[in-house]
């Protein structure tokens, strides 16, 4: 049986108490999930794909939250998608629900915010102060560029435990639409800096409560994020197409056996 309108809305954070309703005027409707549908001049693609493929039962146990019916595990989650996030409103407990990944402003479509200046950037500073969220993930993708081609890599924690990306959320543009969110980024850890200079800000469970209640200062956010060590390996360029969502996307590959090149 399909979910009722009430349950569908409750899984999209419509009831969070929001203190910055004026922000909602700058949000647009959902965009297409593929990077190809977004203007390269208007979108900065970094930390632009991730994987959350843990099954719903194990995921619910890991995050200690009920999982929304709309959530489906995927090996290839891109901007413009509705993604699983954990947030809390004023005087409300932390809750898992679906948020739309991306923030539309008159000048741009933002999927990330830089940790270094998030507290002073006008479009992000209010959410930094009052509207923080966490986005669970198994790993993320980055593209190594050598000036000729781009080769995707899958990056994941050495512990193989869930990652939790630090994000900011923004009020929905309409009552039946999900809230929007962006992922925070920072300087890449030395273990993956050879692939890409930036990475998502990740936080251990020990500081989740402080993060969600807006009590974790920026210097501590950075310090905790740099403590998480990563493993990386080259993967198929099939990940470039967000319509591909299968488990083969995270399998180790080389340019020679990349199945995109098997066409010739």
Describe what you observe in this structure:
By secondary structure, this protein is of the alpha+beta class. The protein has one domain: SOS response associated peptidase-like (hypothetical protein yedk fold, Alpha-Beta Complex). Helices cover 14% and strands 28% of the residues. The protein has helices spanning 5-10, 56-63, 122-130, 208-212, 218-225; strands at 49-52, 74-77, 82-87, 95-101, 103-104, 109-110, 112-114, 132-137, 139-145, 150-157, 163-170, 180-187, 198-200, 230-234. The strands form three sheets. The chain has a five-stranded antiparallel beta sheet with strand order 2-1-9-10-14, with no helix packed on it. The longest helix is centred in the middle third of the chain and has 9 residues, at 122-130.
Q: What's this entry about, in short?
A:
The protein has 264 residues and is of the alpha+beta class. It has five helices and 14 strands. The strands form three sheets. Strands 2-1-9-10-14 form a five-stranded antiparallel β-sheet, with no helix packed on it. A five-stranded mixed barrel has the order 3-4-12-11-8.
């Amino acid at each position: 049986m399909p979910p009722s309108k009430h349950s569908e809305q409750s899984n999209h954070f419509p009831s969070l108490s929001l203190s910055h309703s004026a922000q909602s005027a700058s949000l647009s409707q959902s965009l297409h999930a593929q990077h190809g549908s977004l203007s390269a001049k208007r979108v900065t693609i970094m930390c632009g794909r991730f994987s959350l493929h843990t099954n719903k039962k194990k995921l619910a146990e890991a995050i200690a939250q009920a999982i929304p019916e709309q959530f489906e595990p995927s090996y290839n989650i891109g901007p413009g998608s509705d993604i699983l996030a954990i947030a809390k409103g004023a005087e409300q407990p932390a809750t898992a629900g679906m948020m739309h990944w991306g923030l539309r402003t008159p000048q741009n479509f933002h999927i990330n915010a830089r940790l270094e200046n998030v507290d002073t950037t006008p479009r992000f500073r209010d959410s930094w102060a009052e509207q923080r969220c966490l986005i669970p993930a198994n790993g993320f993708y980055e593209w190594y560029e050598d000036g000729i081609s781009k080769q995707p890599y899958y990056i994941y924690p050495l512990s193989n435990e869930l990652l939790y990306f630090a994000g900011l959320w923004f009020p929905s543009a309409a009552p039946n639409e999900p809230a929007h969110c962006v992922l925070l980024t920072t300087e890449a850890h030395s273990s993956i800096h050879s692939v890409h200079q930036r990475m998502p800000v990740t936080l251990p469970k020990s500081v989740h409560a402080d993060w969600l209640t807006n009590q974790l200062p920026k210097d501590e956010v950075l310090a905790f994020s740099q403590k998480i060590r990563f493993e990386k390996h080259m993967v198929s360029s099939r990940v470039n197409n967000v319509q591909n969502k299968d488990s083969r996307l995270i399998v180790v590959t080389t340019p020679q056996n990349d199945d995109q090149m098997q066409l010739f």
